[in-house]
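Here is this case:
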Amino acid sequence: MKDLFGKAILDYQTGNYTEDMITATHISDNEVLPLPYLFRSYDDMPELEQQALDMCSGHVLDLGCGAGSHSLYLEERGFDVTSIDISEAAIKACKLRGLHKARQIDILNLKDRFDTIISLMNGTGLFQTMQKATVYLKHLKTLLRPGGQILIDSSDVSYMYDTEDLEWIKQNGMPYYGELEYYLSYCGESEDAMTWLYLDFKSLNDLSSGCGLNCEMVMAGDHYDYLARISIK
């Protein structure tokens, strides 16, 4: 991968901000992702993210930390935060922003244990597919200390389909409608398409239950999005 997402974050952090990223999926048109949005303060975050940060306790893992804005807020509040991302450039930016425990690592290779794991800005996207979601949830379960929790958000994107198309997908054994091909471009370069998973709450609940986890709805957003809390049964 070219790591355009990380390059954009690092460019912004180092004062080389000239343009924003462009994102799209196979069912949606191009959209601008403003780089300053990734560096927002707590007051500028959506209510779902604020709620998740307010619920954190103990040693926190920020999964897919990106530019590190969630981690920075938690560190400022005195939390012990480990921030991870697969992007080398994003982790460089996080360290430049002052994060003390920013690491480039794949979550499936992490073995530490935490009281709270946060995965925000469509946190289920990191699971990629319904099938892989079970692998990730089982691994995250091993990272939780007794009484630990996973705070994760996502959206039900069924509203983006015509009713007939959605029924055809379900009846013909097609991949889950929330498995979207995600495209990103920045400064004239394009990243290879990746699969990004948007999960409706019922599916997340069912997958969690199959992994021996409880899943509860914490908050529903205004646009088919939600925040969930997952814990060990």
Summary: The first helix runs from residue 4 to 13. The chain has one domain: 4-232. The longest strand covers residues 144-155.
